[in-house]
Amino acid sequence: MYFFDKNSAFDRNPLFTDSHHTVLYHDWYCHADALHSLLRPRSLAAVICHNTMGSALSYLACLQNRIVPLLIDSKMDAKLMERLLGIYEPEYIFKPASAVHPLYTMEDYGVYRHSRQKHELYPELALLLTTSGSTGSPKLVRQSYANIQSNAAAIASYLSLTSQQRPVSSLPMHYTFGLSVINSHIFCGAAEYLTEDTVFDEAFWKFCRQYRITSLAGVPFTYECLKRIGFTGMDLPDLTLLLQAGGKLSKRLQQEYGTFAAAAGKKFIIMYGQTEATARMSYLPADACLKKIGSIGIAIPGGTFHIMENEHTEIPAPDTIGELCYDGTNVTLGYASGPSDLRLGDMRHGRLWTGDMAYQDADGFYYITGRKKRFVKITGSRVNLDEIEQLFKNAFAGSDFACAGEDDDIWLFTTMPAAAGPELEDFFFKKTKLHPSCLTLRAVAAIPKNSSGKTQYKKLQNFIQQGGSA
After folding, report:
1. pTM of the entire structure?
2. DSSP structure string for 333-400
């Protein structure tokens, strides 16, 4: 599968650049051609992902040869990774080259035989992504070639990407958001600039200045971090596009970054998506950022949203909450819970029930109010844990919060000191009119997050169910 004509001028363009050297699109094609004669067609391969040349080339070479890659976080616990590989038994594994002789090498990566298991794969199955970045869950999202192509095209369209863009790998490539940055820029013939440094490292910003990086993608946690390190005061004239997805950004940060971008001649674009929709489902145009605080924007080109009362009834009235449903060619095939599911076809048929509760305003912009399953009942009334969490995040800048709980018991985890308890309880009562007795506060050093910066609510819920013992 080629994102464009391999004989075009793109084959002379840079594909990936790191702090050492550059590889061209032509190099990708050569590696793909070499692997074509070495690996069995339509086989399953695991790619242990780093933000390096070899890792990214492994993914692309698999797509080019219709070999199905399973992208795995390199930071996953070794036993969990072993379990995942044991369940799916990929024939090949792409990983950092070791002393053992590989079948083939691409930059820093080697290709190794992993098993002799031959899987029956659905003809249009292109890619497998984990549903939980680092837990080793066997549940995978099945993406098709059409899913990847259509979402890359839509993103390139609404961001007006060209071959002159220079994005930096600020997110891990096994993560659907990070991967979408690679896919959408390759779609238009641009280069991806690779580094494993983080925004906390001076080397990351030196890299950005050296290569005149034009765009940066981040999750809400990224933008919290950028605020702490004084990002808005940095001299980065080439960095003109700031992208945010991977969770709801606080209204406070949206206001701050939207104001900064408008004053600095940059674009700050908020997006919404899920792995089950390949990556993106909506975007908030930069010129609407300050006008529509809290909004996820409008559907991407080729997609449509519906606010549903139930499976059959759509809610036409604005400002009325229902479940957000999305239609588009980027809606993935469905899940796999084991190797036998890899033969399954399209189970969703272009429609995704997002599990998010939302409403549409009178201007056609959408707003997420919380997860359908993130509700608890407090003295008989339904309470949205996401809304509670957001209240605290908006009110107490500089501190992190996460909300979990069960019926009649809300747990608020915070990085504020335990001494702030009375202040937080008073705020909770004033805003919700719920008695503080239903609120349990827990001061923590840090809110648990995965490698993509998303809060790990399951860990918090397990903590609660174990009676609050670590």
Report:
1. 0.84
2. -EEESSGGGGG---SSTTEEEEEEEEEE-TTS-EEEEEETT-EEEETTEEEEHHHHHHHHHHHSTT--
